[in-house]
Amino acid sequence: MMSCFLRILLIVFCIGHTPLQAQNKRAKFSVSTTKKYPKKGETIQLVLEAQIFPNWKLYASEPQVVPGPKPAHLVIQPHASFKLVGELKSINPHKERDPYWKGQVVYFEKKARFTQAIQILESNTQISGKIIYQLCTTNNSSCVQYQDSFQVLLH
Q: What residues make up the domain containing 81?
């Protein structure tokens, strides 16, 4: 009887907890590529764009002051049909000395844009992965780390 009660309690907690996590998310990512139909041997750009809630900032992929905010980074599922070229790039982030972190930080407000070059080795491929990033309020009173998964099909 007790085991059944604990299972029900766990299910209720998990169901009730998931929407709250989604509501607390402070950025929304979209992922696309510069070409939907790349040819074998071409290098394309994976483009990751985020809409950031007001009063929040998302930290760029450049190294940050240590100790400090964690830079955004990609985790791409390896596949023989493509290879990564270079590192994740932050496009036009803000750079400033932050008194809270006691050093220079690189971040975005309102909108963020990242690109990753990918060489296509075979047609009809799928790129799967996740972007891991940190957000803080503009006054640094609250910081959270998130990860968003994505999947892009190329024909």
A: 25-154
Task: With respect to residue 40, please indicate whether it lies within any of the assigned structural domains.
Answer: yes
Report the predicted TM-score, pTM, of the whole model to 2 decimal places: 0.82
Distance CA 104, CA 100 (A): 10
Read off the pLDDT of residues 88-123 as tens digits, 9 standing for 90 and up: 999 999 999 998 899 999 999 999 999 999 999 998
Report yes or no on 5 lying in a domain.
no
- Work out how many domains the chain is built from and give that number: 1
Q: Report CA Rg, the chain.
A: 19
d(CA 61, CA 145): 14
Phi and psi at residue 18, to the nearest 5°: -60, -50
Q: Give tens-digit pLDDT for 8-31.
A: 333 333 333 333 344 467 899 999
Q: Are 143 and 134 in contact (CB under 8 A)?
A: yes
Is residue 137 assigned to a domain? yes
